[in-house]
């Protein structure tokens, strides 16, 4: 059974966060979720009080039991469910708020936060208080909803520890491995999925981590390395512009010239002439 309540949303603009819906799942072994992307600005917490279940992150499948839970941040694919043999009893809550991430810090920002706690009764009690409040159906309870949600988030952080994920150093090493592959193979038709596979991350998680650690997107980094290679050919060979475009992975010479001019403010030919590089023969036709 999945007993849940949707809340009338507050119109007060300065609340840190506010519940959207809350529910209590039990005796429902088929309870599972496969969401490609969750609605923007919506967070999701599930907390298991009995039974078993699982959650799949970008790097691993994690078994869950009583005292475990997880939090998904905004715009994240979601994959979790109850165990068929020993279905979980769990509380869940969807919520939103522009101030939520300030309370969470980096928790749930790039990947689901999977945690464990000994304070099962303490955390469940807050869920129950929120759920019971919905039965009153009063708009005057707005402040109480906001306060209880804040209490829930803080209590979970104070009395829980993370059980998933990798260290920042490990993440950096994996991203650097993919970056090195991009550098060496930039002239080839590299897809984001290939680079992500080398790191061992899912494409979506890889994209977020790559931008966070490298300060640019996968596409920007690939273009940057292709441009460096093109400049090398312009300065050290007599290859034609068309040939250089082909050798550096650009779709066409026109596209290469367009992107080069946009980046360098001059055309590839002007770049070659400006530096007055002398070649042993004429350029290819």
From TrEMBL:
Domain HTH araC/xylS-type: 176-274
Swiss-Prot/TrEMBL keywords: DNA-binding, Transcription, Transcription regulation
Classification via Pfam families: AraC_binding, HTH_18
GO MF annotation terms: DNA-binding transcription factor activity; sequence-specific DNA binding
Coiled coil: none
InterPro entries recorded: AraC-bd (IPR003313), Homeodomain-like_sf (IPR009057), HTH-like (IPR037923), HTH_AraC (IPR018060), HTH_AraC-typ_CS (IPR018062), Tscrpt_reg_AraC-type_HTH (IPR020449)
Protein name: AraC family transcriptional regulator
The organism of origin for this protein: Paenibacillus psychroresistens
